[in-house]
From TrEMBL:
It comes from Sclerurus mexicanus. One of its GO terms (molecular function) is monocarboxylic acid transmembrane transporter activity. This is MOT14 protein. Gene3D superfamilies: MFS general substrate transporter like domains (1.20.1250.20). InterPro entries: MFS, MFS_dom, MFS_trans_sf, Proton-linked_MCT. The keyword Transmembrane applies. Residues 220-236 have a biased composition (Basic and acidic residues). The chain crosses the membrane at residues 33-55, 75-95, 102-120, 126-148, 160-180, 192-210, 321-343, 358-376, 388-408, 414-435, 447-466, 478-496. The keyword Transmembrane applies. It is a multi-pass membrane protein. Residues 237-248, 268-277 have a biased composition (Polar residues).
Length: 515
């Protein structure tokens, strides 16, 4: 069921769970290198999510260049945003096998390649493959590790840390909008995408900063869990045993194989001291064999963990509130993405371009979005405040703004609604926290991968749907109304589930009380 942040908190004094000697927590948890992880995640959000929020600039360039319908052209942006998130569950598999650092570095290279290849696009369909698919997959391979690493390095101030790191989306939307406008004006959209591809290579540097915690540190961080989380962990263990019996993971033969390799290697090493050159060649071959064997072990264990999270006895889908969370995510994200993609066109229709050029509405959303994430994160970390309630209130505010936006036809009215959209959408910083509270730290990568996959489906179909509605009605009003109503359906799914328990002060263990 649901585990509050205090239930998954530090309690190293509980000797019954962590041993007779007190364990000192890693200084990098909630401090030290943890803040470098926040900085790395902040830059990732600037370069990936910020760039995607500024795609409205390129969308107008593509409309003029290729002379295609708004619905078809909007698929380029939607594919990029959608695939970034849809690949989440599969990126969770990569993380289980390769770790966050390697996954992010490979993703940075792939993302930059997608931007650079898109500079040579001859039609919209070419952009579907290069920008939508290639850059989208690369973005997903960097984005999920950036979120997961912050969750691993923080325990007491998770909401604030996630809030600070995800403010990169707001900063990025503001900076990238201005940058892409300048680059498109001075060099044209093709050269702008080439330059942006070069800038995106900095994602590899961000990935290199994601220094993994040792297994000991991770076990210490989750030493004390709520009873529900312990039960889930036992079920996960049972699921893994079931998988072993079915042949997905067989640990004993692997251990025997590794031990055999070690024995043979030691034997060859002993023979090598006699100066036999043939033994040296055998030694080299056995080292390669050992490396391949260890790599195979890592891949199989990573796949077993990923498989058990989705299909085992401890499947994440057995959590009813988490399932409702997925349904909400299917409808929510498009309501945030649609304004970013189509606001420039709406401003042009209302003849507000001169005012929007002075201070773009998308920039207003981006700037206020920064403050929204930090403020909502600080509020959620207060001991007397429920993160779940803050999350729901922000959602209600956002859906109200989406339904109200078409009624505003003046720059001031649009600016006010956009500011509220920016602030209320700050709940994005709470999504990893709520997800971790629901499923625990161990399953965060796979669970959050599912959530952002649902967000990706929403982002994939939202903007093209809005463009398609415009092509039929010549208005964007109905697009916002339908998106808002679907968003409300998602919120209702969250409300009809059993209420999540409010945060309560963590009870001291019996042994602590005796001391």
């Amino acid at each position: 069921m649901y585990a509050s942040r205090e239930d998954i908190g530090y309690d190293f004094g509980d000797d019954s769970k962590v041993g007779s000697k007190p364990i000192k927590p890693n200084p990098n948890i909630d401090g030290g290198w943890a803040w470098m992880i926040v900085f790395s995640s902040f830059l990732v959000h600037i370069l990936i999510m910020g760039s995607q929020m500024a795609l409205g600039i390129l969308n107008m360039e593509w409309l003029e260049e290729f002379n295609q319908s708004r619905g078809l052209t909007a698929w380029v942006s939607s594919l990029s945003m959608g695939i970034t998130l849809i690949v989440g569950p599969f990126i969770g598999l990569f993380i289980s096998m390769c770790g966050c650092r390697m996954t992010a570095i490979i993703g940075g290279i792939l993302n930059a390649l997608g931007w650079i290849l898109s500079a040579y696009a001859s039609n919209v369909h070419y952009l579907f493959l290069t920008f939508g698919v290639t850059a989208g997959i690369g973005s997903g391979m960097v984005y999920l590790p950036a979120v997961v690493m912050v969750g691993q390095y923080f325990q007491k101030r998770r909401a604030l840390a996630q809030g600070l790191s995800t403010t990169g989306t707001g900063f990025g939307a503001f900076l990238m909008t201005a940058l892409l406008k300048y680059l498109c004006t001075e060099f044209g959209w093709r050269n702008a995408m080439f330059i942006q591809g070069a800038i995106s290579l900095n994602l590899c540097v961000c990935g290199a900063l994601m220094r993994p915690l040792s297994p000991k540190d991770i076990s210490e961080k989750s030493a004390v869990r709520s009873d529900s989380e312990e039960n889930q962990e036992k079920a996960l263990s049972h699921s893994t045993e079931t998988i072993k019996s079915n042949g997905v993971l067989s640990e004993e033969p692997e251990k025997k194989q590794e031990a055999t390799n070690e024995e043979v290697l030691e034997s060859v090493q002993h023979t090598e001291t006699g100066g036999n050159s043939r033994s040296r060649r055998n030694m080299h071959g056995l080292r390669i064999l050992k490396t391949v064997s260890q790599l195979t072990l890592t891949v199989r264990k990573g796949f077993a963990l990923w498989y058990s999270s989705y299909f085992g006895a401890a499947s994440l889908f057995t959590n009813r509130v988490f399932v409702a969370f997925i349904i909400w995510a299917l409808f929510a994200y498009s309501s945030f993405v649609i304004p970013f993609i189509h606001l420039p066109e709406i401003v042009k229709q209302y003849n507000l371009s001169s005012q929007d050029n002075i201070f773009p509405l998308t920039s207003i959303i981006a700037i206020v979005h920064i403050f929204g994430k930090v403020i909502l994160g600080i509020i959620s970390d207060l001991p007397c405040i429920s993160t779940w309630n803050v999350f729901l209130m922000a959602n209600f505010t956002l859906v109200t703004c989406i339904l109200t936006l078409p009624l505003m036809q003046t720059y001031v009215g649009l600016a006010v609604v956009c500011a509220l959209i920016g602030f209320s959408s700050g709940y994005f910083s709470l999504m990893p926290v709520v997800t971790e509270d629901l499923v625990g730290t161990k399953n965060l990568a796979n669970a959050y991968g599912i959530i952002i996959c649902a967000n990706g489906i929403s982002a994939l179909f939202g903007p093209p749907f809005a463009g398609w509605i415009y092509d039929i009605t010549q208005k964007y009003d109905f697009s916002f109304y339908i998106a808002g109503l679907l968003y409300m359906v998602g919120i209702i799914f969250l409300l009809i589930q059993p209420c999540i328990q409010k945060k309560q002060p963590r009870q001291k263990s019996t042994e602590e009380a005796q001391v």
